[in-house]
Specification:
By secondary structure, the chain is mainly β. Among the domains are: 95 residues, Sandwich (Immunoglobulin-like); 127 residues, no CATH class. Helix content is 5%, strand content 37%. It contains four helices and 41 strands. Strands 20-21-22-23-24 form a five-stranded antiparallel sheet, with no helix packed on it. A four-stranded mixed sheet has the order 4-1-8-6. A four-stranded antiparallel sheet has the order 3-2-5-7, with no helix packed on it. The protein starts with a helix and ends in a 10-residue tail after the last strand. The N terminus is likely disordered.
């Protein structure tokens, strides 16, 4: 028996098929534009063996029998592609050798760039096998976390605090269902640059697995959102979150608020809310000051619920306000609209009233109780006019754009829950009208996207966001190894011309002649309480032309598609906005002609998208000046 065992061990040692040292053939898939490695790219052999690039875009390939061979790999990825060959295949044949390497360049179709996987095991496993350097301290396993659902984050006492939902572990299919958490250093205080990764320090239990951070009593998982940091009366920071207790059928049976206990290093329940209250905190929060009062806004994805930014008000639902067109005190099962004497619908902040969410708005329009023009939310593609149905997301102020930006997921788009959009507006409440899809997934979910404003670079030109990549709700039975049920980080360059979205152009004319217009960046105060004349980009986009302005001295202005002064010694002024040429053969479906009307008396020029506009003494030009984007809002936005 001893001789047999010794012989078996010797044979196993000789057989050792595992790639070690320089035996792997290293394949790196890179973005042809940025040169960065692309995560989550599938390489599949002709006989169906699949590999997925790690967060550096690396596959460490070692297959006995296939070394020193030419091996063809089908190449596919969400939002990236190779060109087709003559037979319609997208792939590459590589000469595989031990210790060799090859690079495959793919074209990015997504506007946002995929950077790395944030959570889970094997984030840089192939890079480690290939002997490549990696940027994070725990490249293959951290906190024994295999997968984590939906992130919330905030800055608390000088560090970033991260919390996730249900979390998987290596030792058993059931893991932590009461919130996992970690901290990391800010990039400005020794943390990694967000383009390469995040070094997490997990809160762990005795066995090294991520501990329960919100052990709220009661059966079923605990989920948190609405995470916010506030200061108490002494100036000390306190961290709060909304919680929900959930049954197995995903039914919420309890809501309330938890507060972080620094000594216990976990959240403790401080108040339970009325489950049937008209509004609750949730989503992703931000703080914003209005008329000298600081509020916490809760974006879901629209920030239509707010409360004063202190503990006393945060725990008291009666002090919360909802932005709505319903009469104060009304309920969704007893709709009462707030209308002026002339019948105009009035939106305002009201207590004890349900917010006007996108889902509520859609139901009211379908039931014929709300006219489409009375709706507050109209997110649509600026080229096709196709409407998006927002799901979850976040809203933050962006310095580069000088506007509020929203990253939101779409439900029932080209996938069930896998599309991500970008929008921007002059105020937290809008006008949210034109948006652009920036990430797409093929029959896969990518939900609950969250922007991380603490990661903004180049004065906000580069923003970063992540979301949960999972086959849940997608109808896809095939889970992507290692990546499924984990967070993936993306970067978005707001200088990309495809993100030159139409923004509100306000009519600030002194009289009833539409002769003077402006956009928010040209104002030195808050957005005007004036009507929106139309929409147009205020930065150059694909296929747009600049529209310049010349002051006339009589309170009006002259618009022209030619520079005011193109002489070499006097550079032209910056355009007021950008438009589509009037003679464009196939203009965007959402554009309309902008006409000029001339008069011999001041103001000498008037402009309108209504070709039938008339006033004594004004003559309409035969041809429109240009094409701009229509305004679907019939309601006046608050300043």
């Amino acid at each position: 028996m001893a001789r047999t065992a010794t012989l078996a061990l010797a044979l196993l040692a000789l057989a050792d098929p595992a790639p070690r040292g320089g035996r792997c053939f290293t394949i790196t898939v890179v973005d042809e534009t940025t040169g960065r490695g692309v995560p989550l790219v599938e390489l599949k052999t002709v006989h169906g063996v699949r590999y997925y690039t790690d967060s550096a875009g690396v596959v460490a390939f070692y297959e006995p029998g296939l070394m020193d061979q030419s091996v063809y790999f089908h190449v596919s990825a969400h939002g990236y592609e190779l060109e087709k060959d003559g037979f319609g295949y997208r792939g590459r044949a590589l000469a595989i050798t031990e210790g060799g390497e090859a690079t495959i360049r793919v074209r990015r179709r997504n506007i946002a760039e995929r950077l790395y996987r944030v959570t889970g095991a094997g984030i840089y496993s192939d890079s480690v096998l290939a002997g490549r350097p990696v940027p994070v301290e725990h490249p293959v396993l951290n906190g024994l976390v295999f997968g984590s659902d939906s992130v919330v984050s905030t800055i608390y006492r000088g560090r970033i605090y991260w919390f996730w939902g249900d979390t998987n572990r290596p030792s058993y299919p059931l893991g932590n269902f009461n919130v996992s958490g970690a901290t990391s250093a800010l990039p400005t205080d020794g943390g990694l640059h967000p383009i390469v990764g995040v070094n997490f320090t997990y809160f762990v239990g005795d066995k090294g697995f991520a501990k329960a951070m919100a052990p709220v009593p009661g059966p079923g998982p605990t989920w948190i959102d609405g995470l916010v940091t506030l200061r108490d009366e002494t100036g000390a920071e306190k961290m709060f979150a909304a919680y929900a207790k959930v049954r197995q059928n995903m039914e919420t049976y309890e809501r309330g608020l938890v507060e972080y206990d620094d000594d216990k290093r976990q959240f403790e329940k401080i108040v339970q809310f009325d489950l049937h209250a008209p509004m609750h905190p949730g989503g992703h929060s931000f703080k914003h000051t209005v008329d000298g009062v600081e509020y916490v806004y809760f974006a879901h994805p629209y920030p239509v619920v707010r409360v004063r930014a202190d503990r006393e008000h945060l725990i008291d639902l009666s002090t919360y306000e909802a932005f709505t067109c319903l009469k104060e005190g009304s309920r969704l099962d007893d709709i009462q609209f707030d209308r002026a004497a002339g019948g105009q619908l009035r939106y305002d902040w009201k207590k004890n009233t349900p917010p006007m969410s996108f889902a509520t708005q859609a139901k009211l329009i379908e039931a014929g109780q709300l006219k489409p023009g009375e709706a507050l939310f109209h997110v649509q593609d600026p080229d096709t006019g196709n409407r998006a149905r927002p799901h979850n997301g976040s809203v933050y102020w962006n310095r580069y754009r000088g506007r509020w930006v929203m990253i939101f997921g779409e439900i029932f788009g080209t996938s069930v829950l896998g599309e991500i959009w970008y929008a921007e507006a002059d105020t937290p409440l809008g006008p949210w009208v034109y948006a652009r899809k920036i990430v797409t997934h093929d029959t896969y979910s990518f939900y609950n996207p969250k922007q991380h404003p603490m990661f903004d670079k180049q004065n906000g030109q580069m923003i970063f966001f992540e979301g949960t990549y999972t086959r849940t709700f997608s109808g896809n039975a095939d889970a992507t190894p290692r990546y499924d049920y984990n967070q993936i980080m993306y970067r978005l360059d707001l200088a990309d011309r495809r993100l030159a979205l139409p923004v509100a152009v306000y009519d600030v004319s002194p009289e009833d002649v539409p002769c003077r217009f402006t956009t928010v960046p040209h104002l030195r105060h808050r957005p005007p309480d004036r009507p929106i004349a139309f929409f147009a980009p205020d930065q150059p986009g694909t296929g747009t032309i600049p529209v310049y302005v010349r002051e006339t001295g009589d309170g009006g202005m002259v618009l022209t598609v030619e520079p005011q002064d193109s002489r070499a010694d006097r550079p032209a002024a910056a355009p007021l906005f950008y438009a589509v040429a009037a003679d464009t053969k196939e203009p965007p479906a959402t554009t309309v002609p902008l006409y000029q009307f001339a008069s011999d008396k001041p103001p000498n020029r008037a402009y309108s998208i209504d070709e039938s506009w008339s006033k004594p003494g004004y003559r309409r030009s035969d041809q429109p000046l240009c094409r701009v984007w229509r305004n679907p809002l019939a309601v006046r936005m608050p300043p």
